[in-house]
Amino acid sequence: MWIVPKQSKWSANQRIQIPEALTAILICWYSGEGGHDDETVAVHLVKNARAAKQWIACDCLGADVPPPLMSVALLSDIDTYYLRRLTGTGRPEHRSDCPFFREQAMLRQRSAVAYDTVIAHPEGYFSVLTPEVEKLAQMPVGDMTDSRARRAATPRLARLLWRLMERAHVNTVPPVGNLRTGNEPSIQAEFDALKRGARGLEVAPGIELTRTLFYYAGAYHSEQIFAKLRALARNWPEDHAPQAFMLLYTAQVHGHDLHIRGFAPIHVANRVQCLSSQVGPVSGPFLSLVVIGDPPETHGYTAVRAYAQPIFSGRRFIPVGSDTERDLLERLFTLQNQLVRDGTVLRITKPLFDDMTDAGFVRADMIVETQRKDGVVTRFALVIRSHDDAAPVPTAIDRIGHLILVTDEALARGSVEAQIIAFTQSARCL
């Protein structure tokens, strides 16, 4: 096998031979059969190739013909590198008996294993980047299919954003007349809440998140963020990677680009992660969390990764998982104003993490609480399903509250609001 320059025409004098022993390690890692030391060595090799803008060429077709090529890619949601086979018209393909004929083992296992549905709060510091990425690519102890593959369902960057949104309470809608600011909701009020939520969090020991968190794209384009990060990096704790964050109201997301009104797009080194890529299209706007770092392949600070969370609107940063959820929220706001005239208040919560019940972890799509003027409180667990969705409702969902199944048809009929009103009126005072 060889290392060759990217985009170069095949030439024997441009290739660098990979030693036979290192080739064997690379094959073990690619096939998922290597141990901890094999993976560490292989990831170090491919990481250096990526930083030097090089490809890996396979010799399975012989030394005298153009070889099959592989590029090094970063699987950002699980923090590790992998080899991506370059295929297409005119490109040589691996022999069918070549170890590289099939995609890499970690990708096969990742797509074959059902994702872990439990979404837990992120542990440790408010950080994503690490000093040595290859350490994160170490083969986990035990069955590989029980670790990185399933963990990819909820990227750490997403869970950090959700943690911040939960601390800021932007995922809740208080009763009418009890808004966070005492006034109508606004983009300024939502960002003020997020700033309060960031207090007390640390990116690294002694480095508060509030010192490295920016809220407008101009700070990136003017390189203000880079200057601040370079200054902080001089005294950054040795075992932690310097990193800063941007929290941006984003109109649109396209591939690697975040589109912010009034500014040039922000290009992210890795493809922007968002809910749309996991469950189908969800329209904007978005609240995007961007991490700024200095990866070896960029030779300078840049936007390394981003997660774009669909939100209800620019005045309410309530996370949504589908356009149906937006429709549901609109109807709940109307119901909220309707009930308050009769002395009943209604609170809405969008759960971001799983609740622990006596029957295990469970998470509703929306939680609604009503309180009558006589003090009786009724709780509802709303679960959204499309009319053709066969996914079962979690068995422990009734531990949260009265179950209401939400479909597009139910919303059209107004049955969701009718059930909330009926249960609220019939609830007995204890």
List strands and helices in order, with pairings.
Elements: E1 2-5, E2 16-17, H1 20-31, H2 36-51, E3 54-57, E4 69-75, E5 80-86, H3 105-112, H4 133-136, H5 148-151, H6 156-168, E6 172-173, H7 187-198, E7 202-204, E8 207-208, E9 213-214, H8 218-221, H9 224-233, E10 244-250, E11 252-254, E12 257-259, E13 266-267, E14 273-274, H10 276-279, E15 286-293, E16 302-310, H11 323-340, E17 345-349, E18 355-357, E19 360-362, E20 366-371, E21 377-384, E22 402-406, H12 408-413, H13 415-426
Parallel strand pairs: 9-10, 14-16, 21-22
Antiparallel strand pairs: 1-2, 1-3, 3-4, 4-5, 6-17, 7-8, 10-15, 11-12, 12-13, 15-16, 17-20, 18-19, 20-21
Helix pairs in contact: 1-2, 6-7
Description:
The structure is a single chain. The chain has 430 residues and is α+β, with helices and mostly antiparallel strands. It has three domains: 2-134, no CATH class; 156-310, no CATH class; 323-426, no CATH class. Helix content is 29%, strand content 23%. It is built from 13 helices and 22 strands. It has helices at 20-31, 36-51, 105-112, 133-136, 148-151, 156-168, 187-198, 218-221, 224-233, 276-279, 323-340, 408-413, 415-426, and strands at 2-5, 16-17, 54-57, 69-75, 80-86, 172-173, 202-204, 207-208, 213-214, 244-250, 252-254, 257-259, 266-267, 273-274, 286-293, 302-310, 345-349, 355-357, 360-362, 366-371, 377-384, 402-406. The strands form six sheets. It has a five-stranded antiparallel β-sheet. Helix 1 (20-31) packs across helix 2. It is elongated, with a radius of gyration of 25 Å. The termini are far apart.
